[in-house]
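Follow-up to my earlier ticket, as requested here are the two runs.
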Amino acid sequence: MVSETGESAEAFFADAEYLSAENLPGSEQEAETLVLYASQSLSAGEGRQINWAGYENGAFVSWKDDGTGTEYYLSDVSQDAACEQLLMDMGQEANNQQFDLITWLLLLFAGFALIILAVNALYHKSYTVYMAAITEALLFLIVFGGVALTLQGRRTSEAEENEKFSRYYLELLSENLDAGSLQNMEEDSFYSADAYYAVWNRLSAYVKDDRTESFFADLCLVRTEDQMILVSASGLNGLSLESVYGNGEEFLEVELETLDGLSCSLTAVLTMEREGWFTDSFPWVYLLAAVLLFLLGSAVCLGLLFRQGREISGLSQAMLAASGGQEVFSKGTARSKDVALMWNSFMEMQKKINRINYARYRIYESCYRFAPKDIEKIFGRDSITEVEGGDFVRLKGTVAFVTSDEPEAADEESALRMSKFVTLIEKHQEESGGYFVPGNSDLTSLRVLFLEKNSHSVDFGTAFLNEFSASSGLDGMRTGILLHYSEFLYAVAGNERQCFPFLLSEEKEQMERFAAWFRELDLKLVMTDEVRTLEKATEDCRYIGYIFMENSGRKLELYEVLNACAPVERRLKLDTEEKFQKAIRLFYQHDFYLARNGFSDVLKVNPFDQISKWYLFTCEKYLNQAYTSGDICQLRPKD
């Protein structure tokens, strides 16, 4: 260690036991304090100054201001240069540069994030993001560019001022140097002569003077030939100017001529900072003010931009909802005049669209009331407007032939009664998934179609007849339903102005006659055996006979659904079920006498059983005939 005055140097040592592995620097148990003991001391000598001290080949050596010992210092400098040439492997380099590596990685991720944001903004063409990016870039350039220009101007002016005053003081010093002292500077005896101390004191006074210490780091007399320092205020003599100060410093020179003809220069090592912008002398308050101003400006600009963007986004969402068919009842918040104007225009458009849609809906609703509902589903279309004249489809399903008595009078009461009757049918038709098929214009014969995949015709008939019998205003009116499963042709006839849907089947006309006849026999709900099997309606069913289809030649067995009867009627028919079925079997065996007795027994218990009466009269008819031909056991209406 060299003392601050350079008058002495001391060497120290530490106890070997103390310098154990766990106390060495970098260890986990590193000691907080290192105790050193003085070993040797070295004095500069009278009038001398030590610039550097160290060990060289086991000897305590020093470099003094008279130039002695420069070889030891140069040796140490060369060793430092050799160490600087050593190469580190990748791991050592990464460990040594880990802070820079972390900084680089953070900047890399930030760069990728900015690239992704820019690409996303370009892809979606977000003009709000464009405007925000441009605003931020301009604000950054204005704020930090202004700070950079201000600081640059300040540094430039300071540098120009320092150079101007430095040159002035340097020229003043060169004029005031005693010419008599500027001789014999190359001789070894010069450093012990009074002339050396005169020059040294003169140079040191300028370096340490309050007026000039801010300009000069060192003042040197340098030999022009090899740039070796002859005399310096710091005492760093005997070495080249470059080896002491390198190339990083800035120098000012004034040429001098000594009395003995030695060419030298008075060189000033300036104190101006040349390390770059961010040094210890950097005015950080400027940067802090710039950051705060940038953040404040960014908050204001981005707030205004995104506030306007949010208003436009709300308007665009409302327009998107309106284009999807939704109704927007109130406009969003808009503080800017242009967005508020757009909202007002949009709401006026919405009102006009609502009026147009309402008018269309009323027209569509009016037309739909007089058209078969859900006809488009039968044809597999999305809308009833897609159904056109000439369209047809072949399908299998169950048709409910609903018959009723004709109104006794053509008056208002009959119209209200038929309206209630049809409304009741429509209610249960919709609940059971059936489709109305247009029929007789006087509404005494209606047809409801149930597709094969939605077989609920028995449930429909049972629910409708139960509610029908309990409805006020329909008392005295008779109705009946015949359920028949078959293949049908459903078609539409007409043109774009008016169309008529219709249902075609080889058995339709005959089934309508049987439906009307069963209503006259007071049979509420009758179904064929195919319907009974398809819908698994086997409980509380009474077999009542069979019929032949003239066109197809099919034999259809018929069953009466007792659940559709009134409770008293249902109980009586269940009580006489066994006798009724036994009488039918005798009837089929052409034992009309015993069959007549059986049907008579049924009527004694249930005198309102009209189908038993028909069988009774048919038995008496054939008992009185000597000869019969054909199938006389099938059900048939009166001729």
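Run two:
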Amino acid sequence: MPILEISGLSKHFDHGGTRTEVLSDINLKVEQGEFIAIVGFSGSGKTTLISALAGLIKPDQGGVIFQGKQVTEPSTHMGVVFQSYSLMPWMTVQANIELAVDAVLKKKPKKERSALCDKYIEMVGLKHAKHRKPNELSGGMRQRVSVARALATQPEVLLLDEPLSALDALTRSKLQDEFADISQKEKKTIILITNDVDEAILLADRVIPLKPGPNATLGKEFNISLPHPRDRASMNDDPEFIKIRGKITEYLMALGAERAGGKITEKHLPNIVPITRNEKVPAAYSEAAASTRSDRYVEFSQTTKIYPTSNGPLTVVDGFDLKIKKGEFISVIGHSGCGKSTVLSMVSGLNKISEGAIILDGTHVTKAGPDRAVVFQAPSLLPWMTAYDNVSLGVERVYPKATKTERAEVVEYYLSRVGLGDSMHKMAAGLSNGMRQRVGIARAFALSPKLLLLDEPFGMLDSLTRWELQDVLMDVWKRTQVTAICVTHDVDEAILLADRVVMMSNGPNAKIGNIMEVDLPRPRSRKALLEHPDYYAYREELLSFLDVYEGGANPSEDQLQSIREKRETRIARQNSGKSETASFAI
């Protein structure tokens, strides 16, 4: 008999007389000790589903049966960890956990309750911080408190609602390992809501997509037969992992395409030149620069950033050296605190360079300018303006000699290219996060910049929306061939977008640790990438690099060289295999 059963569950909400259908006919049986991962799109009703399972909301139809009894209210049998931490800010880590344990397990002796608190504080690695308050903790540490609090109340089922989505990649991987450990040691029944396919495969026995709303329902189930414990680095070489990852990704991509529906409206792009391309320079200067400009379009020369602190100068980035060709797309990857965003803020002119220099198209970068367009993690739109007006503000500045009609055509062209042809006159405040980020991308390209800078532009979005916008970005970039630098913590995103991936060492005193050339054909699609024989070789190199730097480690040159040699050997072997196949065919 299953420990938990969802039967015909449906739910809608009413907002000002408008009925919104959220979930429709959800059916699922969960066995004792099973780990289920449910993946889905933002707005598909994942949190509504978790709330119904926890007894926090009442379904319209159907319901949830736990151990033979219908769930009608919150129960101590269900432990819930939400994306937000919800800690008491005036209480210590230990006091926050004790508060929950004392309320739920009041019949247990005080000594036993205290032992439970200590056990789970140690399990999530917070023994050293048990007397700190939440404002003294990082986001990852606060989420660990939430997990420890849920586990310490001894629930039979643990419900996790995207608990790691707001965390950086390193903290996320550590907590994933803790969830895997808890699942195996505690034999807990766990239902995880996530938007990360790799996370789902790493942890779960079954992965079940939640189809897009309205009227979202569960889709095709995928059984994960990989043995526990699962190691994210070694899984990358496992044929079974590659196979199941490809199947789930393709299924979700098909759901996303079905959701996207309508086609992009084609608009005309006028032949006008922005002000930054009308600059006059001496003929001698042009002649001197002509032979090298293409190969050294952007040049970082011993670029360094030092911040003054109460303990003396802190060198965040130390001697960043890189030459970028015109039209090249560079991804920059590394752990949190490695200075990725600092490098981007210096080349954008928003952060003063302490030492060294940055040269763009022969000119030293000393301040911000319209020749560099930045797309931030949060798009920073003016909420009282429409999508059209937000893009138009920049266009009017950089095309001062264009006619009003020509400027309108630029705005409409790029908004239509990012799939907002029918929504360009909607107020920014009324757009979803994904739509707002589309506006940010359109605004950046509409400036026709010399350099496009992307600072984790999709970091706040769910994986599926991120895939869609990566496709949008690649589609528009293909037409413009603008030189671009993208900071990301997403290995797959780095490979998908870039000609070269620049890997940063840990900060402070962060430098370039390795540069990987991505020799994959363009235009690229996620589906084609998954099927390319070299894709997992590139992926393994990046994962190996991040692994040796994990936890603030400083690997030796031998470790880094072994990563490079391993990839070279693998690629040579793959190329040899291709040659043999071609010879056999001949």
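The only thing I checked on run two: The two ends are 59 Å apart (CA to CA). Let me know what else you need.
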